[in-house]
Write a structure and sequence with these properties.
6 helices
Length: 199
């Protein structure tokens, strides 16, 4: 039986909420989770890397509030709701200016937006990559995982026409941490497509 996606699609282009962030008050390196959902991935990652800071983006405000509560005792984890693309530079650039090193940006099983007219809603798109190139350090690694082959293939084509042409494929869960969605898909026998890309 196919695994049913339980989360509702939310059009990021309709979410106009904007955030600012002044940083963590230390120079520890940063990991970012775009689309944190229940937070199980970032929670496990924080256990593996206690000397890192973590930024979670979750577009759905009620779920983001749950994450805030989940991580309320963690001063190295912050959560932002709304559209990650809209808020990306406003949140990350101040961190860079204060000396933070952004190491990795995880994009785990994003909504695929399969219809042609909806593809502009995808987080990784041509305009987004062009907008981050001038200020995001080339050393930052994007870790991309999906169970949607068409999304993976089309994302690869977008990357080939962008500055982010250094692409490495990998076979197992990032840092050995499967998300709940990934575990369900693997149990169902589905294939997971994975890559790391940098500028």
């Amino acid at each position: 039986m196919a695994t049913k996606r339980v989360r509702n699609h939310v059009n990021p282009l309709s979410i106009l909420k904007e955030h600012t962030f002044e940083g963590f008050g230390n120079n520890n390196p940063i990991f970012i989770d775009v689309g944190a959902y229940k937070g199980e991935f970032i929670e496990a990652l924080a256990e593996k890397f206690p000397d890192h800071n973590f930024i979670c983006f979750e577009i759905r405000t009620p779920i983001a509030k749950n994450l805030v509560k989940k991580f309320q005792d963690k001063d190295n984890i912050v959560v932002f709701d709304g559209d990650a693309g809209r808020n990306f530079q406003k949140i990350l650039e101040p961190c860079l200016q204060k000396g933070h090193k952004i190491e990795k940006i995880f994009i785990n099983f994003p909504d695929p937006w399969l219809k042609d007219r909806h593809k502009k809603r995808r987080f990784i798109n041509k305009d987004f990559l062009a907008s981050i190139t001038p200020w995001l350090p080339k050393s930052v690694e994007f870790v991309f995982q999906t169970d949607q082959e068409s999304l993976f293939t089309e994302t690869l084509e977008i990357l080939k026409e962008s500055p982010y042409t250094n692409i490495t494929f990998f076979d197992t869960s990032a840092y050995g941490i499967p998300t709940d969605w990934e575990s369900a898909k693997l149990k169902n026998g589905d294939k997971i497509y994975r890559m790391i890309f940098t500028a």
